[in-house]
Write a structure and sequence with these properties.
This protein is of the alpha+beta class and about 150 residues long. The chain is globular and about 30 Å long. The mean pLDDT is about 95.
Length: about 150
């Protein structure tokens, strides 16, 4: 079962790279959220994608959308990853139970134990306004983010 456009986004509570508990419902109190699931920190395509988002963060800020990236890595790994690459956006660890949030969204790949590349843009009402999914080895296009963000702007 996958989370689809027009449905309520599955609620979650995860720790960020600083060990702070982040809840989707709390994020949505102030602005729409773009959830960016990525397979693993410190891998080529994931690093490239997140660096592209870092370099285009104004696109999210200008639209009033909170960018949040999620992987199955633990918070210590995500903190090092964020510091090394200069990410100022939130990274969440879907570490334990392993991949539980990715499973709720229907984007967890059992074999390798990672999330596929999936993006969900969620309106302040908690409803999924846009979604796009790419295979683990296929980088997302920045244009897809612009189109998805437009769905909540």
């Amino acid at each position: 079962m996958t989370a689809e456009i027009g449905e309520n986004a599955p609620e979650f509570s995860l720790e960020d790279q600083f060990g702070q508990t982040i809840e989707l419902s709390r994020l949505l109190e102030s602005k729409p959220v773009a959830l960016v699931f990525f397979p693993l920190a410190f891998t080529g395509i994931c690093t490239g994608e997140l660096c592209e988002l870092r370099d285009n963060l104004a696109m999210f800020d200008d639209a009033g959308v909170e960018l949040v990236a999620i992987s199955v890595n633990n918070k210590a790994t995500l903190r090092e990853f964020a510091e090394r690459e200069g990410y100022s956006f939130t990274l969440l660890g879907d570490f334990w139970p392993h991949g539980e949030v990715a499973q709720k969204y229907g984007v967890f790949l059992e074999g390798p134990g990672i999330a596929t590349r999936a993006t969900f843009v969620i309106g302040r009402d908690g409803v999924i306004a846009a979604k796009f999914v790419n295979a683990p080895g296929e980088a997302r296009d920045l244009t897809a983010y612009r189109e998805a963000i437009a769905a909540v702007s």
